[in-house]
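User: I'm curious whether this sequence folds into something compact or stays loose and floppy. Could you predict its structure so I can see for myself?
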Amino acid sequence: MDPLDPIDGTEKTPGRVPPQTVARLTVYRKVLAELHAEGVENVYSHRLAELAGVHPAQLRRDLSIFGSFGSISRGYEVYQLSLTIGRLLGTDRQQTVALVGLGNLGRTLLTYHGFEERGFHVGVVFDKDREKVGRVYAGRRCHPVEDIQTVLPEYGARIAILACGPVGVEAVVDHLAKAGVKSILNFVPRRIPAPPGVHVEDVDISATLEMLSFLSKVEE
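Assistant: Here's the prediction. I'll summarize afterward.
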């Protein structure tokens, strides 16, 4: 069997998949990778669901969207299912990601090895600071943000990370969309309207800390 083929069943191409389902698939993939690292070859749905923090019926519904996997006698083959979910997520091949903003956060993200391990390569960087433009950071030359539409198509990046300041960020997003970017991971501390056909995922670290602050007070 090809290592990317579905396990004991048929794989199907679904229509629109809810973002919540996609988010759970990433958790399943992470758990499966951990099990594989521990030498586990097979896992039953109830155990995988427990480790992923979901109900077994939810896990089976999520996977059934894409086809039939596993068997009653052996459960899921850990390595094969991990590869299959990776293919469904598009992380079975390396993808080039654009990074906008080379402040402290941007430089940290640029050197984060976890992206490479999951199939993402930050291949091109941009900044509006003229003192940074033209310099090389971790092997990548910094380009001015106004050149996004001319430079980015050379790299074929469909995903971008925003780690820049909030001033003028809407224009940056517009440049990214016109350059072919379809998904944006936004670390800028403000909500950004998504252009047509572009998905923006906000990461608000301060808001998360506020939530944790509230939860810690509840526990007192």
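Summary: The longest strand covers residues 120-127. The domain at 19-89 is CATH 1.10.10.10 (Arc Repressor Mutant, subunit A).
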